[in-house]
Amino acid sequence: MSAANATELAAHVLEGDRRALAQAITLIESQRPEDRNSGRLLLEELVPHSGKSVRIGISGVPGVGKSTFIESLGNHLIDQGHRVAVLAVDPSSAISGGSILGDKTRMERLSQRVEAFIRPSPAGATLGGVARRTRETMLITEAAGFDVVLVETVGVGQSETTVSRMTDMFVLMLLPGGGDELQGIKRGIVELADLILVNKADGNLELTAEQSVTDYRKALMFMHPRSANWEVPVEACSALKGEQTKSIWKIIQQFQSSRDAEGLINSNRAHQAKNWMWNEISNGLVERLKANPEVAEKAAELEQAVITNKLSPTTAADELMDIFAGK
Ligand SMILES: Nc1nc2c(ncn2[C@@H]2O[C@H](COP(=O)(O)OP(=O)(O)O)[C@@H](O)[C@H]2O)c(=O)[nH]1
Ligand SMILES: [Mg+2]
After folding, report:
1. How confident is the model at residue 23 (pLDDT cuts 50, 70, 90)?
2. 136 lies in the same domain as 257
3. Half-sphere exposure of residue 280, counting CA atoms within 13 Å on the CB side?
4. Domain of 304?
5. How remote is the CA of residue 198 from the centroid of ligand 2, in Å?
6. Is there a contact between 139 and 75 (Cβ–Cβ < 8 Å)?
7. Are 66 and 59 in contact (CB under 8 A)?
8. For residues 57 and 162, what is the distance between their CA atoms, to the nearest angstrom?
9. Are residues 8 and 95 in the same domain?
10. Residue 225: inside a domain, yes or no?
11. Which of 66, 68, 204 to mutate to test the pocket of ligand 1 (most atoms within 8 A of CB)?
C-alpha cells in the first residue's frame, strides 16, 4: 500500500468506516515488508486520536466463560450507548488456528451489532507478535470511535501479564470449586487482578461459587492489591444468565473513576507506552542483530564454542554484540 493510500485509509477509519477499520488492522498485521512503512504511517495518523476508551483485560482458563461474559457485558454497554471493541490475545491460536467459531457462537448477538467490533487473535504469530498487533489494534479501534475495549486472553501464564500491561483494569474469571483451584492458580496472576469474578454461579454450582467467593476473599487479604486504594472485589456471577452484568459494570466504573481521580489511568498508560517502546527495542534489536551478515558469519562458530564449553555464553554474546555495534 502506498503512503497516499495509507493516509486515505486513516481518514476513513476516523470517520468510523468499519471496512476501513478491518483493512487497517489487516495492514498492521501484515508481515510483508512492503506493508511495514504504510502500516507505520497509518498508525502515526491514528495514534493522536486514540486513548478515549476504557481498556479492560479479561482473563481466565479456557471454558471459564470469558466470551459468554463479554457477550453479556458488551450488549449491556451498547444498550447504554457505548461502542465496544473485543480483541483476543490467544497465542495458542498460532497452533489451533484460533477459536473464532467458538467465540462467534458465544458472542452471537454482539457480533451482529454495528456498535461492536470483534477481532480474533491472528493465527501464526508468537505471543510477542499477537501482543504488538493487539496493542496497535486497540489504538486503531479507539481512533475509530470505540469507547470500550475488551481484551480477552486465555490463561496460559505469560499472556495475562502481557494483557495487564496494555489495559487499565484486569478482570480475572475463576470457576467455582474449592481450595484445589485456589492452589493451582498462580499467585502472580491473582495479584494482577483488579476484580475477580467467580463465574457459573448458577444451577447446582451456585452454592459452590458462593463458597469460592468467601475463600478467595480470605486469600486476597494476604496478597498485595495491584492498585493502591482499591480493595479487589470478589463477586459471584453467571455470565450465562447475565443478572450481575449491570452491577459488575458499576464496579468497573467505580474502579475507573477512583483511579482517574488520582490521575492514575493516565500515568499508568504513560508508563505502559514507555515500556512498550523499550520492549519493541529489545525485540527489534535482536531481529536486526540476527539479520546482520557479519554477526551471522561469526555466530555459528561462537555457538559451537559455547556448546563445547570453550567459551562462556556471556563472552560469546558480548563478542557478537560488539560485532553488531561495529566495535
Ligand atoms: N452454567 C454456566 N455455563 C456457562 C457460563 N458462562 C459460560 N458457560 C458455558 O461455558 C462454556 C465455555 O464458555 P466460553 O464463554 O466460550 O468460555 P471462554 O473459553 O472462557 O471464552 C460454554 O459452553 C458456555 O455456555 C455460566 O455463567 N454458567
Ligand atoms: Mg473465549
Report:
1. very high
2. yes
3. 11
4. 275-324
5. 16
6. no
7. yes
8. 10
9. no
10. yes
11. 68
CB under 5 Å of ion ligand 2: residues: 66-67, 103
Per-residue pLDDT tens digits for 107-150: 889 999 999 999 887 766 677 778 888 999 999 999 999 999 99
Residues 28 and 174 in one domain: no
Would 266 be classed as within a structural domain? no
Residue 64 Cα, ligand 1 centroid: separation in angstroms? 6
Q: What is the pLDDT of residues 57-111, one digit of tens each?
A: 999 888 899 999 999 999 999 999 999 999 988 776 555 544 555 566 788 899 9
pLDDT (0 to 100) of residue 236: 97
CA of 200 to the centre of ligand 1 (A): 7
Neighbour count for residue 117 (Cβ, 10 Å) = 24
Same domain, 116 and 190: yes
Question: Which ranges of 221-312 would DSSP assign to H, the alpha helix?
Answer: 245-261, 264-291, 293-307
pTM of structure: 0.90
